[in-house]
């Protein structure tokens, strides 16, 4: 695959556009869960204005009263064009796609297609907490194959887990988080090819959550799971939601590899009624016309990534972390601080800064927190100041 490097966009850094006072006027989960004296750096919402092409597309739709049910393949075409330009991947076939309400509900539907009640679904903790919640409510058995000590996929552990999961002759699925949340790890082509080979050997079906794919920072390259040798039997979920801050405008795309087309064809028709038509319009506009805005965002996130590393070294050197390769999240190992298994609780109550507790991310999460870097440098600095103050 031939990849296109991120181009300097000439657009201003969207992370510097809004004030804390303005952000506190928002009514979303990030800004309404905690009291006003708490600095929220937890849930995956960004402190940015929307990209102008998205605002324009949604405003035009509202002016037309174009708020009915979703139809057509514009979203799929936009994802395919983005994938070819950004990742050099021309294998996303529009006819092997379906719109779904959002990535996690899409995950649920894909898992239903390739497994049954009581079947194991393998995950790599520490990992996005809704993986556990949605799979349990789906009556699937969550099976852990923890990441290695280096924060990457442990292929030996994964193989043993695959082997054990199908030992009785049953079915098993593997829910791959790519890029990985919360560590921000970008899986390499070699790692993903090895995963595909193992999945083929043991008959495990792979469902890849690739929602953070557009958010790969300089120094790493995203590889779509369906693009690697052996990935043809896989299913993927993609969305503009995280990269363009569109969580409240519901829409995502399910994508099947060539050998999974028959599985996707069994998706119930009513699933496609769940996405928001306005959400589809917004996501399509982001993918087609919002790339300069995305590049400005990525540059700002890279700046914040370096800023956080410097601040932690100066103020909280006992915290260990590997700068994320992707996402706007960072995974902090706070075990040396003496704050117990849930340091997020101490940072909230003593420092008035809200972070995600690592406990909810499964094995390997104790003593860790997840911090959202998608904010202004000033807020990052204030957050670290408050975290340090919580230790006094």
Question: Please, could you describe this protein's structure?
Answer:
With 392 residues, the chain is α/β, with parallel strands linked by helices. Helices cover 37% and strands 12% of the residues. It has 13 helices and 12 strands. The chain has helices at residues 20-23, 29-32, 52-64, 74-87, 103-114, 130-137, 155-165, 189-202, 261-265, 277-289, 291-315, 343-351, 377-389; strands at 39-40, 97-100, 120-123, 141-144, 173-177, 205-209, 235-238, 252-256, 329-333, 353-354, 356-357, 368-372. Strands 2-8-7-6-5-3-4 form a 7-stranded mixed sheet, sandwiched between helices. A 3-stranded antiparallel sheet has the order 9-12-11, with helices on one face. A two-stranded parallel ribbon has the order 1-10. Strand 3 (120-123), helix 6 and strand 4 (141-144) form a beta-alpha-beta unit. Helix 4 packs parallel to helix 10 (277-289) and helix 7 runs parallel beside helix 8 (189-202). The longest helix is centred in the C-terminal third of the chain and has 25 residues, at 291-315. It is globular and about 60 Å long. The termini are far apart. The mean pLDDT is 96.
Protein traits:
392 residues, alpha/beta, three-stranded antiparallel sheet, 13 helices, 37% helix
List the helices and strands and how they pair.
Elements: H1 20-23, H2 29-32, E1 39-40, H3 52-64, H4 74-87, E2 97-100, H5 103-114, E3 120-123, H6 130-137, E4 141-144, H7 155-165, E5 173-177, H8 189-202, E6 205-209, E7 235-238, E8 252-256, H9 261-265, H10 277-289, H11 291-315, E9 329-333, H12 343-351, E10 353-354, E11 356-357, E12 368-372, H13 377-389
Parallel strand pairs: 1-10, 3-4, 3-5, 5-6, 6-7
Antiparallel strand pairs: 2-8, 7-8, 9-12, 11-12
């Amino acid at each position: 695959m031939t990849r296109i490097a991120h181009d300097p966009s000439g657009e201003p850094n969207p992370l510097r556009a809004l004030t804390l006072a303005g952000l506190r006027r928002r009514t979303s989960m990030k800004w309404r869960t905690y009291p006003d004296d708490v600095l929220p750096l937890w849930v995956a919402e960004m402190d940015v204005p929307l990209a102008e092409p998205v605002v324009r597309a949604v405003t035009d739709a509202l002016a037309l009263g174009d708020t009915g049910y979703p139809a057509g393949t514009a979203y799929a075409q936009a994802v395919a064009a983005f994938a070819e330009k950004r990742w050099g991947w021309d294998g996303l076939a529009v006819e092997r796609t379906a719109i779904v309400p959002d990535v996690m509900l899409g995950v649920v539907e894909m898992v239903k297609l390739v497994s049954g009640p009581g079947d194991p679904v393998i995950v790599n903790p520490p990992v996005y907490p809704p993986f556990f919640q949605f799979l349990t409510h789906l009556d699937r058995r969550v099976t852990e194959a923890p990441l290695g000590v280096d924060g990457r996929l442990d292929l030996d552990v994964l193989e043993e887990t695959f082997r054990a999961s199908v030992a009785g002759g049953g079915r098993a699925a593997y829910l791959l988080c790519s890029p990985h949340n919360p560590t921000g790890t970008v899986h390499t082509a070699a790692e993903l090819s090895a995963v595909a080979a193992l999945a083929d050997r043991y008959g495990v079906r792979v469902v890849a959550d690739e929602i953070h794919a557009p958010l790969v920072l300089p120094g790493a390259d995203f590889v779509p799971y369906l693009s690697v040798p052996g990935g043809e039997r896989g299913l993927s979920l993609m969305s503009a939601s995280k990269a363009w801050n569109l969580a409240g405008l519901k829409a995502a795309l399910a994508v099947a590899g060539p050998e999974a087309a028959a599985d996707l064809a069994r998706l119930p028709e009513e699933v496609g009624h769940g996405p928001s038509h306005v959400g589809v319009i917004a996501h399509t506009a982001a993918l087609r016309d919002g790339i300069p805005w995305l590049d400005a965002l990525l540059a700002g996130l890279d700046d914040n990534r370096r800023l956080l590393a410097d601040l932690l070294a100066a103020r909280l050197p006992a915290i260990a972390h590997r700068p994320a390769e992707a996402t706007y999240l960072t995974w902090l190992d706070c075990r040396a601080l003496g704050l117990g298994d849930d340091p997020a609780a101490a940072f909230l109550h003593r420092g008035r800064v809200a972070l995600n507790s690592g406990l909810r991310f499964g094995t390997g999460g104790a003593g860790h927190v997840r911090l959202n870097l998608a904010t202004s440098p000033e807020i990052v600095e204030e957050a670290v100041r408050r975290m340090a103050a919580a230790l006094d």
